[in-house]
Specification:
Order of helices and strands: HEEHEEEEH
Number of strands: 6
Number of helices: 3
Structural class: alpha/beta
Shape: elongated
Strand order of the largest sheet: 1-6-5-4-2-3
Distance between the termini: 41 Å
Oligomer: single chain
Strand content: 35-45%
Radius of gyration: 23 Å
Length: 184
């Protein structure tokens, strides 16, 4: 019984900490009309002055390939700009964050001595968080119709396969709700 409670609490804790994508879209748009896409002229990871180590030409290729693959799963194919129904723009940013842990300890009795003490230890670590944003723009009206974003902790010392897998998971998670599912 106790094991089941601990297991359930662990699952709840893990799911509460998971990073889910954020989506927003124009509810008046008929997304079923979109069958083709092309790249926006602004689609470039490096345009935003991000971290040069994480944001580079190799990562650019990974993001583009993942978007193409994810859009194909939704039956939306890449075409030349003049034939596209929508334009896809994407950008990324890298921010540094600080994580701090504090541990409190206390003591009260010793041999031949009574007293009270309290001690706090704090450990701080800096880490990078990346955010990938994907925008879908209606080409005819030049209006943003859908936006998805996902934030996650960046890992260093990954090999190319691990980086590709990470980008694919992120892009697929963002585009999971494109086109948005209409709720009646």
């Amino acid at each position: 019984m106790l094991r089941n409670i601990i297991l359930a609490a662990s699952v709840i804790l893990i799911s509460a900490c998971s990073n889910t994508p954020d989506w927003d879209y124009d509810k008046s748009v008929k997304f079923t009309n979109y069958k083709t896409f092309s790249w926006s002229a602004d689609a470039d990871l490096k345009n935003n002055g991000g971290n040069a180590y994480q944001i580079n030409d190799l990562m650019e290729k990974r993001v583009r390939n993942a978007i193409i693959e994810a859009m194909l799963k939704h039956n939306i194919k890449l075409v030349e700009s003049e034939n596209a129904d929508v334009l896809v723009n994407y950008h990324a940013s890298v921010d540094s964050k600080i994580e701090a842990d504090s541990f409190n300890t206390s003591y009260s009795a010793r041999w031949n001595y009574w007293g009270f003490g309290y001690q706090t230890q704090t450990h701080a670590r800096e880490y990078d968080v990346g955010t990938l944003v994907i925008d879908v723009i209606d080409k005819a009206s030049n209006q943003l119709v859908w936006r998805g974003a996902k934030e996650g902790r960046l890992r260093n010392k990954q090999n190319p396969e691990q980086r590709t897998t990470s980008v694919n998971k992120t892009v697929f998670a963002i585009l999971e709700n494109f086109p948005p599912v209409e709720v009646h």
